[in-house]
Amino acid sequence: MYPTLSEFIKAVFGVDIPLPVQSYGLFVATAFLVGVWVLVKEMKRKEKQGLFQTTEKKVFVGEAAKPKELIISAIIGFFIGYKLLAAVLQYSVFVDNPGDFILSSGGNFFGGIIGAALSAFLTWKDKNRTKLETPKWITKTIMPHEHAGQILFVAGIAGLLGAKIFHNLENWGDLMADPMGALLSFSGLSFLGGLILGGLSVYLYVRKNKISIIHFLDVAAIVLPLGYAIGRIGCQVSGDGCWGVYNAAFADEGTIPAIAYQMGHVASFQPPEWLSFLPDWLFAYTYPHNIGNEGVLIANCTWQHCHVLPAPVFPTPLYETTMMLTLFGVLTFLKKKIRIPGMLFAIYFTFAGLERFLIEKIRVNNLYKIGDFKSTQAEIISSLMMIAGLIAIIYLFKNKGKLISKFGDVTSKNISVNA
């Protein structure tokens, strides 16, 4: 495992270069960048089909910078400078744990003053560059794909908040033990929580900006599985704890902790003969150098992260990446075959729920207990996703004529509809 970019460079090239870049964050950032690119591409395709319509917006231009704008800009610049100069002056501390450093109260006041002054000046300069003798209202035509950056930003912020909320609801004991640590930590995220709150926020944004919701959902069906697949690579590379239960078939006697048996975090799977060509680590992996420092110490290790699990577990992030990339490929093929608007998203939603429901069977997660019924939070949500997805598929299929008439045939080209 390579929890940080520095450890990857050290392992591969033998050079120790301290960099404040964590592998998980790098892959999440990559997922967002790829997501923006695919989102813009798909939205432009819908625009050419006539399924997305332009909107007009009145904008007041030519104004000089207002005091309120300068103050807000200065405040933002202060916090950036406050942290940035401190990070430079305390680089070794910053590199050791960038997340905790950023969220801490520490910083450099002088750097904050410089940042505030520079940010306010740049805001004033930018406004002054477009200032007119007589400010005026103009009507600006907005293409739907121009919203892509804002959509991903809204999805990211709301998704992160939802991921933290749902994770802490699932790990209530940890939250009560250390509320601030649990809420402010960069670790501990629930994908399904992020999907729910992020999805709701994007829906409100799309509706507000008069973008056809049903066609946008079909765009999202292409973006979401690809972004999720890339993000899960970050989980695997960093060893962030999103792994599966112990695979007893590959464990030496006595290496699996007793508590794992008590909590039901043990399974046994020996791959059949027809899968014998695959390496064993695809079924049982010990996550050496994992970012959470879980397990036992690695002898003579000089890395920042020197722990390895005592027995191998199922590398579930790899399975999720594989399944989501497969789903992405299937949906990319189907997007030019399926005529019914909304059907692509219904298929995605159903199989995304199925994927997560299946992976929960071998993934470490806390159980909710309702009488004799036991289930994880993800199993409950993914089950609802499958049910909702199947209902949507049936409804869309039964009403395909009306939907195509109202929203357009999504396989057509250069059409014009009231979408």
| Radius of gyration of CA atoms, rounded to a whole number | 25 Å
Helix content: 55-70%
Arrangement of strands in the largest sheet = 1-2
End-to-end separation = 48 Å
Sheet-strand content, in percent, reads 5-15%
Most strands sheet = 2 strands, antiparallel
Number of DSSP helices? 16
* Mean pLDDT across all amino acids: 89
Give the helix/strand class. mainly alpha
Series of H and E elements: HHEHHHHEHHHHHEHEEEHHEEHH
Low-confidence stretches: 415-419
Number of strands: 8
Shape estimate: globular
Topology summary:
Layout: H1 5-13, H2 23-49, E1 55-61, H3 67-89, H4 91-96, H5 98-103, H6 109-129, E2 136-142, H7 148-170, H8 172-177, H9 179-184, H10 191-208, H11 213-238, E3 246-247, H12 258-262, E4 266-267, E5 296-297, E6 307-308, H13 316-334, H14 343-359, E7 367-370, E8 373-376, H15 377-398, H16 400-407
Parallel strand pairs: 3-4
Antiparallel strand pairs: 1-2, 5-6, 7-8
Describe the structure in your own words.
This protein is mostly helical. It has a domain at 61-140. Helix content is 58%, strand content 7%. It is built from 16 helices and eight strands. The strands form four sheets. Strands 1-2 form a two-stranded antiparallel ribbon. A two-stranded parallel sheet has the order 3-4. A two-stranded antiparallel sheet has the order 5-6. Strand 7 (367-370) and strand 8 form a beta hairpin. Mean pLDDT is 89; it is low at 415-419.
In short:
The protein has a domain at 61-140. The protein contains 16 helices and 8 strands.
